[in-house]
UniProtKB/TrEMBL annotation:
GO terms for molecular function: diguanylate cyclase activity. Its EC number is 2.7.7.65. Keywords: Membrane, Transmembrane, Transmembrane helix. The chain crosses the membrane at residues 429-448. This is diguanylate cyclase. InterPro entries: Diguanylate_Cyclase, GGDEF_dom, Nucleotide_cyclase, Rev_trsase/Diguanyl_cyclase, TPR-like_helical_dom_sf. It comes from Thalassotalea piscium. It is an enzyme of class 2 (transferase). Its cofactor is Mg(2+).
């Protein structure tokens, strides 16, 4: 697909950035005081200080010499990985590939593994398998960047297979990780997702994709303010976005003036895009009946070299279609040769233009190719999707599909007959065109139903709460396991760094809604979230749990923080009145219940997170029953075998039975 192929170029520059991050990592590790490990991938390569001042060629020479002179296998490995990262900085994919072959990465060396799989010329299916293993390893090792990058590439490959559901699932994994990992990766994933919206969504999703891209333009420009050395990345990324916006306007919005606007923003010196920009601009002018401009740009497009990075043979067919439109030529040789491996998105656009052309043979080829596109690509996809559901509406859809298929087969017969008679007469052709367009219309209706399903999936996959802008429960469910693994690994490394899970519930919130209305209630929720956000660390995970309940996961570097955080949040809410719109001032308070995991290094480290949340909820409700505007922190469940009993009863009963230890801020605790 045109947009994704361009990604090929972008991927390269992103991996440059990754290598840069890795080099910074390597050099900072160099100065770490003591590294006591025997693991080959954890000990940084030793480089002289002057190395940093070398040019790329000098670095490569120095590294090659150091490898030749080195006797230790470990040292050779580390120097080689540094060499590969240098190659990557200089886009030397061939060299990366051969080095990866002669010295394959260690399984724990996730960064090097990522570079090798990215550079390898495997077919996409093999690459996908390797990436899925890498993604799993990176998630387990908490290597966020590699996890994000591998998930994003997996999503991209799935989308090129047309497996959109899988593509979205993997972008769903990649997006929060990428946002956390770095802004470059975040931009990359966002742009790929935007592309997916545009290519596979209905008009609403096309607009959504476009607005994601417009946001990204702003983010990328801001990057330049912070870091002037990012100018090359900024230039390339902006060109990519402008190009994609141009294509979106050409293919999906048929807004040619807008398309020309975006194509016009692309630096003509970017040779990889030069020919595509010229051809598509010429097409847009032709559609706007500005034949003079169209002709001039088309002539230029023949003068510039084709892209070396991605296969753009289909441009030759576009050139012929434009020439036919300009009444300049009747040759259609290149459209005859249009490859079936051209992306579906491009084929759909191009074939429609061929069928529309006032050139009988070109229209006929367009129809034939459209038919094989339907049989080979669209029909299997429709079948694959329809097989998943047996609902009544789905069955109706299947019936329509099979009728459509039958009609298309008849149409094929008609077309074959027409071909045997050499060139079909213009009138027969017109009938065929009208018939296929009716069928196309039916297909569009069917696809819209499919897209509705997609739209539902998009909504489900959202990680944000619309009202407060916080992450939501879905986000928590995706990330809590990682937090718990962090705790477990710290304990395995003899460090006790527990996490605390707090649940916050606004007191008598129903009264606020009932007295002042839902809008004021919403305002209170927003202010509530803002105050807590200010009282906690940026790295804490703070989410809207649902309704007027919020949840916080905080890493505890000091045990006293456990109570201090609860008290700080309580005070942040109730110490000062909420000042709302229309001069309304409200006294708001909340009750807090919390649990610590693990309560000691000997605790059960495999405890499911939902049990912890349930225990925090029990603590919260004790606070509600006893007083409100207070916190209740469960310190310990005394014996493991009591855990399920503690979950099933009121916390007061567990305290009475000596099953738990609890610290709280309740003034007069009622034990009865
Ligand atoms: N304005 C607004 N209200 C919401 C939202 N989500 C949930 N609510 C309301 O939150 C209220 C929760 O009320 P209850 O669960 O009865 O509890 P409460 O009144 O807060 O009383 P306690 O929790 O016992 O102190 C309900 O009235 C919900 O309608 C929202 O997004 N906006």
């Amino acid at each position: 697909m045109i947009l994704l192929q361009w990604n090929g170029v972008q991927f390269k520059s992103l991996s440059n950035f990754i290598a840069l991050v890795f080099c910074v990592f390597v050099s900072t590790q160099l100065f770490a005081s003591e590294v006591v490990t025997t693991n080959i991938t954890e000990v940084p390569v030793t480089l002289p200080q002057v190395y940093e001042t070398y040019s790329y060629e000098e670095k490569v020479d120095w590294l090659k010499q150091a490898i030749d002179n080195s006797k230790s296998r470990d040292n050779i490995y580390r120097l080689t990985t540094e060499l590969v990262f240098q190659y990557d900085l200089n886009n030397e994919t061939e060299l990366i590939r051969s080095t990866c072959q002669s010295l394959p990465p260690e399984s724990k060396d996730l960064d090097y593994r990522l570079l090798c799989v990215t550079a390898h010329v495997d077919n996409d299916e093999t690459k996908l398998k390797t990436l899925v293993v890498l993604q799993k390893d990176a998630l387990e090792a908490d290597n966020i960047r590699v996890a994000a990058e591998s998930s994003s590439t997996i999503a991209w490959i799935y989308s090129s297979f047309g497996e959109i559901e899988q593509a979205f699932r993997n972008y769903e994994i990649a997006l929060p990780l990428a946002e956390y990992a770095n802004i470059y990766l975040f931009n990359d994933v966002t742009l790929n997702l935007a592309t997916l919206y545009i290519v596979h969504g209905d008009s609403e999703y096309v607009e959504k994709g476009i607005s994601l891209m417009l946001d990204a333009i702003e983010r990328v420009n801001n990057l330049l303010l912070d870091d002037p050395s990012a100018s090359r990345y900024v230039e390339n990324t902006l060109a990519r976005i402008h190009f994609n916006l141009g294509i979106a306007n050409t293919f999906h919005r048929t807004n040619y003036p807008q398309a020309l606007h975006y194509f016009g923003l692309i630096d003509p010196e970017l040779t990889e895009l030069r020919q595509s920009v010229l051809v598509f601009s010429s097409l847009a002018y032709a559609e706007l009946n500005n034949f003079e401009e169209s002709k001039a740009l088309l002539a230029q497009s023949f003068q510039v070299p084709s892209s070396q990075t991605f296969n753009s043979d289909y441009l030759k067919c576009y050139q012929e279609v434009i020439k036919v439109k300009l009444d300049d030529s009747t040759e259609i040789e290149q459209c005859h040769l249009l490859s079936e491996s051209t992306s579906v998105e491009v084929q759909q656009d191009l074939l429609k233009r061929m069928i529309d052309a006032e050139h009988a043979e070109l229209s006929l080829i367009g129809l034939q190719k459209l038919y094989s596109l339907y049989i080979n690509s669209l029909l299997p996809l429709l079948k694959q999707n329809s097989g998943k559901s047996a609902s009544r509406t789905e069955l109706t859809r299947l019936q329509q599909e099979s009728r459509l298929k039958g009609e298309l087969i008849n149409k094929e017969k008609a077309l074959t007959a027409a071909e045997q008679e050499k060139l079909a007469s213009q009138s027969n052709l017109t009938i065929a065109i009208i018939a296929v367009f009716i069928l196309l219309l039916l297909m569009v209706v069917l696809q819209l139903r499919q897209k509705q399903k997609l739209a539902d999936q998009f909504a489900q996959m959202s990680l944000f709460d619309k009202l407060t802008g916080l992450n939501n429960r879905h986000y928590f469910e995706q990330n809590i396991k990682r937090e718990m693994r962090f705790v477990k690994r710290a304990i395995e490394g003899d460090r006790y760094t527990p996490i605390a899970i707090y649940l916050f519930d606004i007191d008598h919130f129903k009264n606020v809604n009932d007295t002042y209305g839902h809008d004021v209630g919403d305002e209170v929720l927003i202010e509530f979230a803002r105050r807590i956000n200010e009282a906690i660390r940026d790295s804490d995970m703070f989410i809207r749990w649902g309704g007027e309940e919020f949840l916080l996961v905080a890493r505890l570097f000091e045990l006293d923080d456990y109570y201090a955080i609860a008290e700080r949040v309580r005070g942040a809410i109730s110490d000062t009145e909420f000042e709302l719109e229309n001069m309304l001032k409200l006294k708001v308070s909340c009750t807090i219940g919390s649990v610590i995991f693990p309560s000691s290094p000997e605790d059960d480290l495999t405890r499911p997170w939902d049990q912890l949340v349930k225990l925090a909820d029990n603590a919260l409700y004790m606070g509600k029953r006893q007083q409100r505007d207070c916190w209740v922190c469960v310190d310990k469940v005394i014996a493991e075998e009591n855990f399920s009993l503690v979950l099933s009863q009121d916390l007061e009963d567990s305290i009475k039975d000596n099953l738990v230890e609890v610290t709280h801020s309740i003034k007069e605790f009622d034990r009865s």
